[in-house]
Amino acid sequence: MISKIISESDIVAARDLIYDAERIAIVAHKAPDGDAIGASMALYHFLYTIDKEAVVVYPDSYPAYLGWLQGVDKSLVYNQQQTEIEKLFEEVDLILCVDFNEPSRAGDMAQLLANSKTDKLLIDHHPNPAEGFWKAKISYPQIASSCEIVFRLICRMGHASEINKYCAESIFTGMMTDTGNFTFNANNAEMYYIVGELIRKGIDKDEIYRRVNTYSADRMRLMGFLLSNKMKLYTDSRTALISLSYDEQKQFNFQRGDAEGFVNLPLAIDGIVFSIFLKEEKDRIRVSLRSRGEFAVNEIAATYFNGGGHFNASGGDYFDSLENAIKKVEEIIPLYKEKIVNS
Ligand code: 5GP
Ligand code: MN
To answer: Where are the CATH 3.90.1640.10 domain residues in the chain?
Structure first.
């Protein structure tokens, strides 16, 4: 048995909304990662087992390393199927919002989501969810992944036996990726009880690890290049910065998802507790921040980069050149030096 972290009133509110709906759209955040895709696909498989019609919608496409998840190829992608999704939003009885805490995280779909009058149920683990936007919410930042919340929700609704292998594979994927393969936020014993249950459902845990962590040769070479040529260390501030330009992406035949995890790499260096990754995109610089210990990176993401996220893992955008983004970061580091070093 696992403890009842989610309150009974939250479970009842979510259950009522789900039971009352016939057609349900499931939406995850832009640039969906393992937890966003895992949680949305897990809900999709679950909803079909209880005779609901579900459609998963992503603001933009999912990365190739998650393309093996059963059913993900049936999901709709807003920047490719806009009209279909607009129609869908008029028809569904409920929208499940998964692994994000405010409409803006739905990227190009944010406006559509914000304008929709359909009831929305939030299932998420990011701190400080937007107010007044959801009919009900299951928002638990103390839970390491949205996938773990989905597992807990399904069980508490009394449907543990309806978790099939595909649902279990999806849940495991997000539990694994949001904890860096169970290397951070992963000291909760119940997490391993849940993994045990998922293995009983027939998942091949080792194979999922292999699939999610298998890359192209180009990506591997890019990683080597960035670590040897592009990583700047600010040793006194225990900080590392890696930047990746558009030209460099072309040089390494960059594919969606290829930069996943790069920001974590410098944290394996003895003494480094704060890591910044800057990636040049068409109209912006994507900023990824990670820390170890007591240094909050979501505050930096919110203050300087229109972003947010978790205490130790957050992101945002910078609307200027890569060169200026690097300058900005180099201005910020000294301001936080004391906090970083003492974290
Ligand atoms: P990543 O560095 O992988 O892009 O993002 C790390 C985490 O930060 C995400 O899981 C998400 O929780 C959060 N995050 C990333 N970008 C944004 C953003 O633009 N706004 C907010 N609020 N959170 C973000
Ligand atoms: Mn997540």
So the answer is: 8-212
Task: Check if the beta carbon of residue 52 is closer than 8 Å to that of residue 19.
Answer: no
Intervals of CATH 3.10.310.30 along the chain? 217-341
Give the Å distance between the CA of 266 and the centre of ligand 1: 18
203-216 pLDDT, tens digit per residue, is: 999 999 999 999 99
Q: Which amino acid residue places its CA nearest to atom 18 of ligand 1?
A: 307
pLDDT tens for 279-302 read 999 999 999 999 999 999 999 999
Long-range contacts formed by 220-223: CB under 8 A, 24+ apart: 221/252, 222/248, 222/252, 222/254, 222/258, 223/262, 223/265
Residues 120, 229: Cα–Cα separation, whole Å: 46
Ligand 1 closest atom vs CA 126: 12
Distance 37 CA to ligand 2 centre (A): 9
The 10 Å CB-count burial string (b at 16+, else e) for 176-208 is: bbbbeebebbbebeebeebbebbeebebeeeeb
The pLDDT tens digits of the residues spanning 113-170 come to 999 999 999 999 999 999 999 999 999 999 999 999 999 999 999 999 999 999 999 9
Q: Where are the beta strands (DSSP E) in the chain?
A: 23-28, 53-58, 76-77, 94-98, 119-124, 136-139, 231-234, 239-244, 274-280, 285-291, 308-309, 313-318
DSSP string, 211-264: HHT---HHHHHHHHHIIIIIEEEEGGGTEEEEEE-HHHHHHTT--TTTTTTGGG
- Closest listed ligand to the CA of 313: 1
Which ligand is nearest to the Cα of residue 308, counting in written order?
1
Contact predicate 273/311, CB 8 Å: no
Tell how far the Cα of 177 is from the centroid of ligand 2, in angstroms: 9
CATH number for the domain running over 8-212: 3.90.1640.10
Q: What is the Cα–Cα distance from 235 to 271, expressed in whole angstroms?
A: 8
CATH number of 217-341: 3.10.310.30
